[in-house]
Amino acid sequence: MPFFAPVGLVLGALCTAAAFLCLWLFDAPDTGFAGRCLVAALAAWAWMLCEIWATRGLHWDGLSDLGDATSSGASGERFWAVLRDSRLGAFGALHLLVAFSGLWLALTWQLANGQWIAPLLAPAWGRAACIWLAAYTVPHDERSLGGLACAGSSPQLARWQVVLATGMLVLVLLLGNCPFWRLPLLAFGQFLLIHSLIDTTREHGGVSGDFLGACIQWSQLWFLLVTV
């Protein structure tokens, strides 16, 4: 777990390199505004494809499963039965649609403006947020992925992630031309997201890997939207 955010940085570098390779291959000065936007959208798609390939789509699966479970209104063991069901329901599909389209739009906007620092840092930010969640919750099943994450996290490690996150904010401010007023907004929104997920784990008896995957994806999306 201490290396979770650095691994995210490596993933971000891989995805961002794929996106800028796409920009380099397909961009042309005479394409006009619409053409540049189309190329940026293609590059954003390449970023997302690279992320899905590297992670095997594990976090997206968690996002859809949690969307189905939380929107079902179920509680107790019924909640966990819905969460573990591998079939995609309507609510999970809606959560996937919103998150996937939002990430695609945010990345397109970032890349169309020539920004590279936020796409580079977004996976690291999402994984730092995952540690914040794991450090302040209890696992539903200690033998599960959520249990392993909680065992490897601690409040002290979570505080180190705050230091890392602060460094990422400074980099975005200096290298990404992000307005300063957006940084408190980013921090406050992230706090609300983590707090909401913690409340959900307390309501349903603990955290699982699906919670952590959803936390990573929603946190990445929030980071990219606010820093654009």
From TrEMBL:
<keyword id="KW-1003">Cell membrane</keyword>
<feature type="transmembrane region" description="Helical">
    <location>
        <begin position="158"/>
        <end position="176"/>
    </location>
</feature>
<keyword id="KW-1133">Transmembrane helix</keyword>
<comment type="function">
    <text>Joins adenosylcobinamide-GDP and alpha-ribazole to generate adenosylcobalamin (Ado-cobalamin). Also synthesizes adenosylcobalamin 5'-phosphate from adenosylcobinamide-GDP and alpha-ribazole 5'-phosphate.</text>
</comment>
<protein>
    <recommendedName>
        <fullName>Adenosylcobinamide-GDP ribazoletransferase</fullName>
        <ecNumber>2.7.8.26</ecNumber>
    </recommendedName>
</protein>
<dbReference type="GO" id="GO:0009236">
    <property type="term" value="P:cobalamin biosynthetic process"/>
</dbReference>
<feature type="transmembrane region" description="Helical">
    <location>
        <begin position="33"/>
        <end position="54"/>
    </location>
</feature>
<dbReference type="GO" id="GO:0005886">
    <property type="term" value="C:plasma membrane"/>
</dbReference>
<keyword id="KW-0808">Transferase</keyword>
<dbReference type="GO" id="GO:0008818">
    <property type="term" value="F:cobalamin 5'-phosphate synthase activity"/>
</dbReference>
<feature type="transmembrane region" description="Helical">
    <location>
        <begin position="6"/>
        <end position="26"/>
    </location>
</feature>
<keyword id="KW-0460">Magnesium</keyword>
<dbReference type="Pfam" id="PF02654">
    <property type="entry name" value="CobS"/>
</dbReference>
<comment type="similarity">
    <text>Belongs to the CobS family.</text>
</comment>
<dbReference type="GO" id="GO:0051073">
    <property type="term" value="F:adenosylcobinamide-GDP ribazoletransferase activity"/>
</dbReference>
<feature type="transmembrane region" description="Helical">
    <location>
        <begin position="116"/>
        <end position="138"/>
    </location>
</feature>
<feature type="transmembrane region" description="Helical">
    <location>
        <begin position="88"/>
        <end position="109"/>
    </location>
</feature>
<keyword id="KW-0169">Cobalamin biosynthesis</keyword>
<keyword id="KW-0472">Membrane</keyword>
<comment type="pathway">
    <text>Cofactor biosynthesis; adenosylcobalamin biosynthesis; adenosylcobalamin from cob(II)yrinate a,c-diamide: step 7/7.</text>
</comment>
<dbReference type="InterPro" id="IPR003805">
    <property type="entry name" value="CobS"/>
</dbReference>
<keyword id="KW-0812">Transmembrane</keyword>
